[in-house]
Amino acid sequence: MSKTTPDALKDKTRTVLKRLRIRKPTRTDLIYLTLSFLIAFFFWVYIAAKISPDTTVSLSNIPITIDTAGTKAAGYDLSVIDYEKGSDGKKLTVNCTIRGSRTSIGGLSRGDVVAYVDFDSTVTDTVGSQTLPIKLRSSNGREFDNYTLSKKTLEVTMDHYKTVEIPVLASDIQYPNLTRSDEVIIDSEKISAEPSVVKIYGPSAQLSTIDHIRVTIDDSEELTMNKTFTNCNHFDLVDDEGNTVSDSAFQVQVTSFSVYMPVYYTKTLPVTIELSNVPENFDTSFLLERVRLNANGEFTLPGYGDNNLPITIRTYSRENKAKLDQMDSWPIEPQIPLYSFSINCQIELPVKMIDGYTDESELGTIYVTLDSSDLIASTRVIKNSDIQFMTGPATYNYALQSPAGNTIITLIGTPEAVAEIDAADLRATINPLSISATQDGTFPQAFTVTLPDSATKVWVSPQPKVNITVSIT
User: Fold this and answer.
1) What is the pTM of this model?
2) Cα dihedral 38, 41, 46, 52 in deg (nearest 10)
3) Is residue 4 part of a domain?
4) pLDDT given for residue 88 in this prediction
């Protein structure tokens, strides 16, 4: 067997490669190739147009577009607030089958097709739910005519969006973490919030369910005085039954509030009275133990019986509260002159409070009577000539209109005490400074009767009067 030398192997390889070499196409070859392509294309177009012009394209899971922009629904000022969803809570999709010419739909893919809700053809100006058709178009906006969908309609809920003003209800302000002592009372009627009204933007049907805004104070402390809590950002939208309304559909223009929490203090005290025009030697306790309060006379004064008339005093001031804590009874003003007490008298005292205090009990008027079961009324005569004038202005002349006459006075007291006093024991004086006169004339004028020092349980009632003639010099 002969061996092949390397040079011989190279010669054989060159010979084979020359035989396999593709020749360069001639002009005639190029003409034949072009004619073949044109004939094939002509037959493809002819088959597509004449023999089999139509085709079908099926696409799956096309998302449904929900957009009212530029539609009749937008012209009605309607916006979609909810729409039908799948069982998994996600947006629905549709499957479609499109029929058409091969030339127009033959190459369609899922990204070339848009399924959308038709907000033009059957939509109405109705707030609430509407079932609208689903239509199909190409991604460049061309409507498809011949197609079927796995779902033909979609239920959407629409509403008008608007802005309304909702009040912050002061009576529903919550303060679960605030504490206070028993004597500190929160004045719920004066609680207030700023702002007191809030603008909210949203769908009208859902806005109509909101009755008010409930603000909650989250601070934790003991209330001892009036206080304003700022930056209260815990609030809820509430319906008329007190249920919370979800705020997910709304734009609330205020998110922080200031809440004023007023407190007051109360103390209940027994009502008492104070006397005026009382002689130094008079036994005040003798009278006060016989004083009764209210029209039926069922209450006694504190210190003179256990059945006292209570009054509850309110104050918002800590300083006034400190004064109130030092008191063991509440005097009704004004003071009552001693001469106002007579047999079977009834004195009306309107309850007037001094600044800084109010009558929580709303007593209104107190009636003061006298238990006169052991008292008598007895008259005495005073000669007018015995009535003495005190020093008066030098420019006035005073004189009794009837200096020779007599004036009757009435003494009130126990029979024993009254019996000890006769007319000779009485002294009468008139203070001219109490006479108000701008011209000559005669004026009725009260005068003061002074009893003996021993008459500690007797007084004069009513206050006696005489006519005084005044001349100006």
Assistant:
1) 0.57
2) 170
3) no
4) 87
